[in-house]
């Protein structure tokens, strides 16, 4: 006779999640971020309370953490998963309606970046008895639709829990997706609020601990032979390192492979710091925000070897960076990504693929232009350490140089959107694992919550979060959460009085008029004068505004050892920045990025920008 245990559906969910383990003996879902409302407080909220106090989960509590906003607490969960290289994740729960739809942006971010997070969104009544309930979105033509259907395009698995026993299949499916190296991404379980509270007799076997092993797919023998032959035939191969190298744990294998076979390594945003910048085979950033050395190597390459990259437009210069006759190999755990741009695919785990390829290339060594790499690094040093004139504000590059000078091997630079991602990718000289960038979705507002999640994932490392005033204004409330939980990290808040990055794209890139980005271009008399240090201090952070780079460095050193966030505000110029793909700073670098320019314009700058646009798009490689 089957042994059963009577629990509500919400209690069963918490109990089941508490026994899903990693190969290292940790819970895969470490805990749950929660903001409660009428769609989850009575059902899941009560179950999480019991889980926290060990009533459902044995002697080990299942923790719940309170956030300030559904989107940003999900960003913290995403940063945690990225910081753990997808080997652990968090759950995030909200009520129905706005609480749930607030998480949709975060779900899209996780989907684009292939990161696991479990969204448990409160939903309407399965019984439909009290419909329409508070915050219910009604579809006039389809009674099965709720606001949570917005999650469908931005998660890898969606399920609506309309009966308790649906969890018997939905939960294992959810964890299967989140631990699958190819399908990895966010999951949404839309949990009807009446069902959360319903009792069911669950098989005890359902709650037996389970270990989830992340598989390492081996390459197909034919694909492996074809790729090795392509590499052997290449005279000027270049590696393009993506985030899949880090998720595979292939950093050391990549370093050995590149050195043994004399192949230069270039980096995407997600792949940066897989190889330390000090490694002699690391030629730096590729693409729109790329280095002179990396882009020159990629333009001259007769074979580009992508490893764990989804070949985003910033990486490929909107398909114009690689030579027209260059061949492309793509090593990726997912066939969808491996086949992009008409590449010769090698579908496999990055580490396993490199380990299998290297013996087939015995005796092969292409060689690299070490002088080009050295020239680039000297130019970076000179540019980042350029003195600031007495009557001038520092550039973002000078801020990066100042922070770099006081960073250590333990420092991780974190950022997400605006000016800094391009500048950091171009100029930051990362130690191993010392770079965390959300640039798949380039989501403003990720930064502060992401820093909190990253510090939770990497408690022994120093997290320095670069954020512009624009992103800070979009989402800063999780500072209060970090203070409350005593999670220390350092925020370098660069204030250029508006959206400086998009202003440069608008004016320099597209030839347009400066409009609606910087406060001074918003056609308003009373421009905001925001005291960011006072604002951050009001939430409990240690906050200071510094007048120059020496003050910035001193404040970073002083932040070490504090058990709460430190926010350092520094004013920067909005007009000067390397990395637009147009300007030449620290030597030739950067590349074209396709942003549509109006075909008809009322100024010479726009007509000139349109001519550049047409000339560049004509060079695009038209592949799948």
Fold and architecture overview:
- This protein is α/β, with parallel strands linked by helices and about 625 residues long.
- It folds into 3 domains: about 5-210, Rossmann fold, CATH 3.40.50.970; about 220-370, TPP-binding domain (Rossmann fold, 3-Layer(aba) Sandwich); about 385-570, Rossmann fold.
- It is built from 24 helices and 22 strands.
- The protein has a 6-stranded parallel sheet with strand order 4-3-5-6-8-7, with helices on both faces. A 6-stranded parallel sheet has the order 13-12-11-14-15-16.
- The termini are far apart.
Structure summarized in a few sentences:
By secondary structure, the protein is of the alpha/beta class.
Helix and strand arrangement:
Layout: E1 4-8, H1 9-17, E2 20-22, E3 29-34, H2 41-52, E4 64-66, H3 70-83, E5 89-94, H4 98-101, H5 104-112, E6 118-123, E7 157-161, H6 167-178, E8 187-192, H7 193-196, E9 199-203, E10 210-212, H8 221-233, E11 237-241, H9 243-248, H10 251-261, E12 264-267, E13 282-285, H11 292-300, E14 303-307, H12 313-316, E15 327-332, H13 335-338, E16 344-347, H14 350-360, H15 370-384, H16 396-406, E17 411-415, H17 419-427, E18 435-437, H18 447-457, E19 462-468, H19 469-474, H20 478-485, E20 490-495, H21 500-509, H22 532-538, E21 542-545, H23 549-559, E22 566-571, H24 604-617
Parallel strand pairs: 2-10, 3-4, 3-5, 5-6, 6-8, 7-8, 11-12, 11-14, 12-13, 14-15, 15-16, 17-18, 17-19, 19-20, 20-22, 21-22
Antiparallel strand pairs: 1-9
Helix pairs in contact: 1-2, 3-5, 3-18, 8-14, 10-14, 16-17, 16-23
């Amino acid at each position: 006779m089957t042994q059963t245990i009577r629990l509500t559906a919400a209690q069963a969910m918490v109990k089941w999640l508490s026994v899903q383990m990693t190969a290292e003996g940790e819970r895969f879902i470490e805990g749950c971020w929660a903001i409660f409302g009428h769609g989850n407080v009575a059902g899941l909220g009560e179950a999480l309370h019991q889980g926290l106090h060990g009533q459902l989960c044995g002697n080990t509590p299942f923790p719940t953490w309170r956030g300030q906003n559904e989107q940003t607490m999900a960003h913290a969960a995403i940063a945690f998963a990225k910081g753990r290289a997808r080997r652990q994740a968090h759950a995030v729960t909200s009520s129905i309606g706005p609480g749930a739809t607030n998480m949709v942006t975060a779900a899209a971010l996780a989907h684009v970046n292939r990161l696991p997070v479990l969204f448990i969104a409160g939903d309407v009544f399965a019984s439909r008895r009290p419909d329409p309930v508070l915050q219910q979105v009604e579809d006039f033509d389809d009674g099965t639709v709720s606001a949570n259907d917005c999650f469908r395009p931005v998660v890898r698995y969606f399920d609506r829990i309309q009966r308790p026993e649906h969890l018997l299949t939905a939960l294992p499916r959810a964890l299967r997706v989140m631990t699958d190296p190819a399908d990895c991404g966010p999951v949404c379980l839309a949990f009807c609020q009446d069902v959360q509270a319903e009792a069911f007799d669950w098989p005890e076997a359902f709650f037996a601990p389970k270990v989830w092993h992340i598989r390492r797919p081996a390459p197909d023998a034919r694909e492996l032979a074809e790729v090795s032959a392509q590499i052997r035939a290449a005279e000027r191969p270049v590696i393009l390192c993506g985030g899949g190298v880090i998720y595979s744990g292939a950093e050391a294998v990549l370093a050995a492979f590149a050195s043994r076979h004399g192949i230069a390594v270039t980096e995407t945003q997600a792949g940066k710091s897989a190889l330390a910048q000090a490694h002699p085979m690391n030629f730096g950033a590729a693409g729109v925000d790329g280095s002179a050395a990396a882009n020159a190597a990629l333009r001259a390459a007769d074979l580009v070897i992508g490893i764990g990259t989804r070949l985003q437009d910033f990486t490929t210069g909107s398909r114009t960076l690689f030579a027209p006759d260059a061949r492309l190999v793509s090593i990726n755990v997912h066939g969808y990504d491996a086949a992009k741009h008409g590449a010769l695919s090698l579908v496999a785990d990055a580490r396993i693929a490199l380990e299998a390829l290297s013996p087939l290339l015995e005796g092969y060594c292409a060689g690299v232009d070490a002088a080009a790499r050295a020239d680039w690094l000297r130019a970076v040093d000179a540019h980042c350490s350029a003195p600031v004139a007495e009557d001038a504000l520092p550039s973002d590059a000078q801020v990066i140089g100042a922070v770099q000078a006081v960073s250590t091997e333990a420092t991780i630079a974190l950022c997400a959107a605006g000016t800094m991602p391009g500048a950091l990718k171009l100029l930051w000289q990362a130690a191993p694992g010392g770079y965390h960038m959300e640039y798949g979705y380039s989501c403003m507002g990720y930064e502060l919550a992401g820093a909190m999640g990253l510090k939770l994932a990497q408690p022994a490392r120093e997290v320095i979060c670069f954020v512009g005033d624009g992103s800070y204004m979009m989402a800063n409330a999780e500072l209060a959460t970090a203070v409350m939980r005593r999670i220390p990290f350092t925020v370098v808040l660069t204030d250029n009085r508006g959206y400086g990055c998009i202003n440069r794209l608008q004016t320099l890139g597209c030839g347009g008029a400066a409009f609606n980005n910087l406060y001074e271009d918003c056609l308003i008399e009373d421009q905001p004068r925001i005291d960011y240090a006072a604002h951050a201090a009001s939430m409990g952070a240690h906050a200071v505004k510094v007048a120059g780079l020496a003050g910035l460095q001193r404040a970073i050193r002083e932040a070490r050892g504090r058990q709460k966030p430190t926010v350092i505000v520094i004013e920067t110029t909005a007009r000067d920045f390397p990395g637009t793909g147009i300007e030449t700073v620290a030597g030739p670098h950067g590349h074209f990025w396709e942003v549509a320019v109006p075909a008809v314009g009322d100024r010479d700058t726009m007509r000139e920008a349109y001519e550049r646009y047409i000339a560049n798009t004509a060079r695009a490689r038209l592949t799948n």
